[in-house]
Design brief:
4 strands, 26% strand, 24% helix, 5 helices, globular, 174 residues, 4-stranded antiparallel sheet, Nuclear Transport Factor 2, Chain: A, single chain, alpha+beta
Length: 174
């Protein structure tokens, strides 16, 4: 039984409890693969950290559709799935370390600081990031800071909260 990629780390000091993929991220991936993401009985990440782990595993396992569908809906059509697929395929992933989870930032926002390790010609390197997430209708989504959006600070927020962008998700995106 293969271990879940989100539970593997290149250093034993960061190793979390090994868990089989089937008992960890697979139910989340399967729910999206089966297009049951709108079904109220489908598996949903209960925290931004859980979503972060499932997204890391999706990169390792090259599940680009999952990456797209777990990004905030207003950004999904702006993502380049071919670029996501290429990056996932070209990267030799080595492990994940959750540095910090800030679960309650405002009404429905959270952040996860993490290091995604990968192998390079120079040895193991880390992609270190502080990612932001928003909860919409009881589901967590990633706020992608790399997506160029034409939204002003005074427009309604992209997450549908009814607040102005600057008072909601705008504080978590550049």
């Amino acid at each position: 039984m293969p271990l879940c990629p989100c539970r593997v780390s290149p250093s034993l000091s960061f190793l979390t409890t090994p868990i089989a993929y089937s008992d960890c991220c697979q139910p989340y991936h399967d729910a999206v693969d089966e297009n049951n993401s709108d079904d109220p009985n489908t598996v949903k990440a209960d925290s931004a950290e859980r979503l972060m782990r499932t997204r890391y595993s999706a990169f390792v396992l090259q599940k680009a559709d999952y990456i797209v569908k777990t990004t905030v809906p207003a950004q999904q059509t702006l993502l380049d799935i071919k670029d996501i697929e290429s990056w996932a395929q070209e990267t030799d992933w080595a492990g994940l370390e959750i540095v910090k989870h800030l679960p309650k930032l405002g009404k429905g926002h959270a952040q996860v600081e993490f290091k995604a390790y990968y192998n390079s010609a120079e040895g193991i390197k880390a992609h270190h990031e502080l990612s932001s997430f928003v909860r919409i209708d009881e589901r967590w989504y990633f706020l992608d800071p790399t997506v160029a959006m034409t939204i002003s600070q005074k427009q309604p927020c992209l997450c549908g909260s009814g607040e102005k962008f600057k008072r909601c998700c705008g504080g978590y995106l550049p």
